[in-house]
Amino acid sequence: MTQTTSIRNPKSEIRNSTQILEQARRYLVGGVNSPVRAFRAVGQEPLILERGRGAVVVDADGTRFLDLIMGWGALILGHAHPAVVRAVRKRIADGAHLGLTHHGEVELARAITEAIPSVEQVRFAASGTEACMTAVRLARAHTARAKVLTFEGCYHGHSDGLLVTRSAGVPQTLAQDTLVVPYQDLDAVEAAFTQFGDQIAGVILEPVAANMGVIVPDRRFLKRLRALTAQHGALLMFDEVVTGFRVAYGGAQALVGVTPDLTVLGKIIGGGFPVGALGGRRDIMQRLAPEGGVYHAGTFAGHPAAMAAGLATLKELQRANPYERLEALTSRLAEGLRQAAARAGLPAQVNQAGSMLTVFFSGRPVTDCSSANAGQPAQFAAWANRLRQHGVLVPPSQFEAMFLSTAHTQDMVDRIVSVCLR
Ligand SMILES: *Cc1c(COP(=O)(O)O)cnc(C)c1O
Q1: Quick check: 279 and 262 in contact, CB under 8 A?
Q2: Catalytic site residue from 67, 177, 267, 323
Q3: What's the 242 CA to ligand 1 centre distance in angstroms?
Q4: 229 in Cβ contact with 196 (< 8 Å)
Q5: Alpha-carbon distance 419 to 200, whole Å?
Q6: In sequence order, which residues have a C-beta less than 8 Å from that of residue 115 and are 6 or more positions away?
């Protein structure tokens, strides 16, 4: 009798958010696998999601949210887009992981080179972090120089050399070869080149920043970077992990008309699966092993399921060409958010690039990391938490962009604005 009652049927086990979270805390550090998911910046607990479809996600208690996180920008077609699901199902039924070259890698690489003319050849990786790290290694080998110039507030994944000031455990010996200057600060860039010109292998940046909130740089900034790198024999590297196939099919470089030597991609090109890619001029790319001496490898590099999901996504983007509609819808949201803030008497800046945007509760324009930091974190947290109470999920950090997808509608946007107006 006592024995039967102590045997639990796993199927009848209730798994609500509270129970999962308690277990998550025990078995995962901080209950998460990526720190922003802990919701600490807004004073909340990790949200346990169960599923997503279109623009909506559902948590483990069955609560629905209109999603503006969208897989941190990876899901431009929304959750579980039928074309992506179909392509992945078909692919994994024939072997999810082959471990050798397959058709899908070639197809996606070709689609990328057709979309982004500066990319003549591609190397796939399993994450954006890995692709950025390899881009820097390639630039160092190509120029036989050690230093890399980066910008405060840009994110290029979590490799040692690209995190420097932002993590414990990075040796000073590595940090000294990473120069960090404020975003859009041309004087600081010129000063760095004056001092270290013959030691700088390359400049890496987000051509539209999305990891200190959204910041659209002045076009002259990017043009000047192109001129300076060329003049000093350094490579210009655009980290388009977010902006590639997001702000335009051809990425930010198509919009600003500046051609980098190397481009890093990720997020959208995996259609919701783990991916990264590095591409650029053939003569530089040829330095990668096995053609050259720069090592990069990966058990899961060019993973068939990611290639299939990415290719299905790109095909759908090409077919539907949703960019104008997405931008108009996002402008409508941005304008609504500005009006709501004004009505509430809150100074706010809404920065937008295509289908991504950020609200900063600040009275002055946000153009770099220090002006982004001037936003009021408490006001942001209160705003984000109130939206969540009304069924709208925004990124739990001031510095993460909100993303719209093709699954978002005008009604949804108007609903978000009406919550903010309440
Ligand atoms: C997300 C991101 C990365 C890192 O990609 P992961 O796949 O998370 O490793 C690199 N650069 C930018 C601009 C990103 O937004």
Answers
A1: yes
A2: 267
A3: 7
A4: no
A5: 49
A6: 245, 249, 250, 251, 314
- Nearest-atom number in ligand 1 for the CA of 206 is 13
Which atom of ligand 1 lies at the shortest distance from residue 130's CA? 9
Q: Is 198 part of the annotated catalytic residue set?
A: no
The conformation of residue 375, written as its DSSP 8-state character, comes to: S
* pLDDT by residue, tens only, the chain of 422 residues: 444 444 555 555 668 999 999 999 999 999 999 999 999 999 999 999 999 999 999 999 999 999 999 999 999 999 999 999 999 999 999 999 999 999 999 999 999 999 999 999 999 999 999 999 999 999 999 999 999 999 999 999 999 999 987 899 998 888 899 999 999 999 999 999 999 999 999 999 999 999 999 999 999 999 999 999 999 999 999 999 999 999 999 999 999 999 999 999 999 999 999 999 999 999 999 999 999 999 999 999 999 999 999 999 999 999 999 999 999 999 999 999 999 999 999 999 999 999 999 999 999 999 999 999 999 999 999 999 999 999 999 999 999 999 999 999 999 999 999 999 98
Is 239 part of the annotated catalytic residue set? Answer: yes
Residue nearest to atom 5 of ligand 1 (CA): 128
Q: What is the pTM of this model?
A: 0.96
Ligand 1 centroid – CA 156 distance (Å): 6
267 an active-site residue?
Answer: yes
Q: Which of 67, 177, 239, 368 is catalytic?
A: 239
Q: Are 214 and 247 in contact (CB under 8 A)?
A: no
Half-sphere exposure of 47 (CA within 13 A, CB side): 27
* The two three-digit tokens of residue 158, written as one number: 């979590």
Q: Residues lining ligand 1, CB < 6 A?
A: 127-129, 132, 155-157, 206, 210-211, 239, 241-242, 266, 276
CA nearest neighbour of 407 among 299, 272, 302? 272
Would residue 404 be called left, alpha or beta, if left means φ above 0 and alpha means ψ between -120 and 50 degrees?
beta
Using CA atoms, how far apart are residues 108 and 319, in angstroms rounded to an integer? 16
Paired tokens of 344 = 């509430």
The DSSP result for 245-285, as a single string, is: TTTBTT-HHHHHT---SEEEEEGGGGTTS--EEEEE-HHHH
Which of these is catalytic: 155, 177, 261, 368?
Answer: 155
Strands 200-205 vs 178-182: parallel, antiparallel or unpaired: unpaired
Ligand 1: which residue has its CA nearest to atom 14?
Answer: 241
